[in-house]
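Researcher: I'm comparing several assemblies side by side, and this is the next one on my list. It has 308 residues spread over four chains. Same procedure as the others: predict the full complex and return the structure.
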Amino acid sequence: MAKEMDMSITSDGQFDHLKRICNEAGIKLTHQRLEIFKEMVAAKDHPSAEAIHRRLQKKLPTIALDTVYRTLTTFDELGILRKLRLTGERTLFDANLDRHHHFFCTRCKKIEDVYWPEFDNSSLPEGIGSIGKIRARHLELHGLCKKCLAEGNE
Amino acid sequence: MAKEMDMSITSDGQFDHLKRICNEAGIKLTHQRLEIFKEMVAAKDHPSAEAIHRRLQKKLPTIALDTVYRTLTTFDELGILRKLRLTGERTLFDANLDRHHHFFCTRCKKIEDVYWPEFDNSSLPEGIGSIGKIRARHLELHGLCKKCLAEGNE
DNA sequence: GTTAATGCAAACGGTTTGCAGGGGT
DNA sequence: ACCCCTGCAAACCGTTTGCATTAAC
């Protein structure tokens, strides 16, 4: 019984976590917000708002796409995730807040996280001071992923 | 007279250049294409299609915005310029084909070119091979430009 | 009970497209 | 003369917004 209790608590961990965040921010913890939160935490990729909406169809068949947009934007403002307005196309969302960069497969459009702490900590070029003060750097690597390299000839 | 002839030839240099490009590509050299080309070569910033359209209003009051879009896309395909689908917002166009990166001022939205050959030629992190083959790298630096640093307090 | 969040639908802004007429070759 | 390119208008797609209803507090 103690064991089941533990499991219950564990599976409610995300609920408690989000509840705390919402309380601090003074916003309501709604069913939709919780499910979007869980979906984002579970996501191993970089989903668009539409993708999250699609994935929630089974659990929340009546959820509206604009609610997903609104919620993801709220989460971005709260610092729960990052709005990624990357190269072209739609806006993506990334629940991974660790410092990292992105690889884009030119063919299949897949996006992979790239960690490169040496680069993050390296100094910027000389002339940069004359431009301004850099607060963040984000690197985009473009090429062909392993899978596309194996499959295709282009 | 010889002098005027030289000047004439000189000022037609862009015309000749574009004419050659169009001939090779098998497309027509139209008035609109020439003016958009000249505007892009003259541009020291990273104009949007709308900006180019605006700048051409005096010279070509009847040019349509979609012609600018079509022409810039054509130029991008011909390699005359680069379509920059950068962080959020609209698509920008860059006639500077030298390898370079971009700095974004978070406040005034200004974009500056950043040259960093040492970085361009440096090797990528170890694990990158397991992801795929990198063909290009583009760095985005975000921060406050000199002007905004001086003006503001944020 | 009060207030904020949701769902719906319609607006929005940047970009693209279908079409007929006009200009370059 | 031929056909591509242009201008016009309307479609398009991702995203945002106004509003009445619903649910969280």
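Model: For your comparison table: Residues 27-28, 30, 32-33, 62-64, 66-67, 70-71 of chain A lie near DNA strand C (CB under 10 Å from a C1').
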